[in-house]
């Protein structure tokens, strides 16, 4: 399944447009074919009506057949059939390639009822009435044209009544409009459009092979086959451009959303020039950021105020407990209870101090007092403390000499203490801890690894969340509240570095602390 909305939009546009274009092409092809057939029917009918009233010789009919072949644009003479008969059914002319299975005796000549009505037949020569207007020739009177030589009219101007119809020269039609119709018939497996016209004196048949239309329709089909893919390419390109333009505000929202952190809640997007729907979405997004900023500021202020307000009472309580323990030297049971309470007060004091630092980091106000810091010496001290705190573990280290940087020494020592403390707490019985440093081009890499049963994959992304502890069953027996790693990462990032979990195996866990060089 396509997951990209833009790609789906483009494909849907192309598919819908393709279906519409194919439907349009099929409909157009069918319509053009119908128009071509109607045009062919009209032409064969018009030729038959026009020629049925003419008096022609056999040679003239042959010449007329050649002219019709040219007029229809037919390349082969067998695609045209011509038949002329007199009123008695005597053939005056028949095409030499007349098919043998087409019986001329069974041609359904039209009757007068098939004559087109209404409308007068346009005549090339029509005698005026005996009492016609002045200046018009009367019946039987011949008027030569202006550019004709003087003298008697030529013999071909009017037919002689005693001349047989088949031997008469070409003459214009006279009399009423002939009866005509168009029929369809398959001859030798080919479709033919046949125009028939009849008068009292003659019958004319003009047939054209309708297969000639297939060539024209093939050209139309090829044109559609070329035009539709090009149109789809243009539609796809247009859909890509339009979707890019339409999704531009969403890209702005995505970019702004990625920048939404504790330090970026004050940013707002401008809806100037955007469409109404996207302007409304941007307005909703800005309102959400405003509510988040207000809620975060309230929560941050509460955490900072609570941690700050608890600092003094806890310090007083810790001092009084220490003094009470000293005064209860002769009462071991009371001293033991007071010591337990003092440990919890110290734990609570540590939590409040960490919460105060985290609230400052969230607000971007963590106070860092940078000074030259000897990281090599600090790491050596931490490893000595580790050997005293965990004598049952195998402790090894590889520390480069001369590692110095500009940092807040107390905060960096706190990060190192958190990493070593976690390595001790979550180690295996008779396990090991290994610390190694690497001097890179512009940073220092401190790697702390320890033996472990491994961290579930589902918990890897949650290790740096506040108050989160992966092994909940084991965590009841291990000190801590799940703020160490989160605070350590914030301290590392405040110094321009980072803290991350390196790829682990089922037997060990390794954390990498990155710090910039001085």
Describe this structure in words.
By secondary structure, the chain is of the alpha+beta class. Helices cover 47% and strands 15% of the residues. Strands 2-1-5-4-3 form a 5-stranded antiparallel sheet. Strands 7-9-10-12-11 form a 5-stranded mixed sheet. It has a two-stranded antiparallel sheet with strand order 6-8. A hairpin with a 3-residue loop joins strand 9 and strand 10. Helix 1 packs antiparallel against helix 3, helix 5 packs antiparallel against helix 6 and helix 7 packs parallel to helix 8. The longest helix has 52 residues. It is rod-shaped, with a radius of gyration of 53 Å. The protein starts with a helix and ends with a strand. 19% of the residues are buried.
Key words describing this protein structure:
alpha+beta; 47% helix; 15% strand; rod-shaped; 12 strands; 5-stranded mixed sheet; 518 residues
Judging from the principal axes of the Cα atoms, what is the shape? rod-shaped
Oligomer: single chain
Q: How many whole angstroms does the radius of gyration measure? A: 53 Å
Q: Give the helix tally.
A: 11
Query: Mind describing the biggest β-sheet?
Result: 5 strands, antiparallel
Beta percentage is: 15-25%
The strand order across the widest sheet is 2-1-5-4-3
Unreliable stretches, pLDDT < 50, 5 or more residues?
A: 118-146, 148-172, 472-476
Distance between the termini: 51 Å
Pairing-aware structural class of the strands and helices?
alpha+beta
Mean pLDDT: 78
Q: Could you give the count of β-strands?
A: 12
DSSP helix fraction = 40-55%
**N-to-C SSE series?**
HHEEEEEHHHHEHEEHEEHHHEE
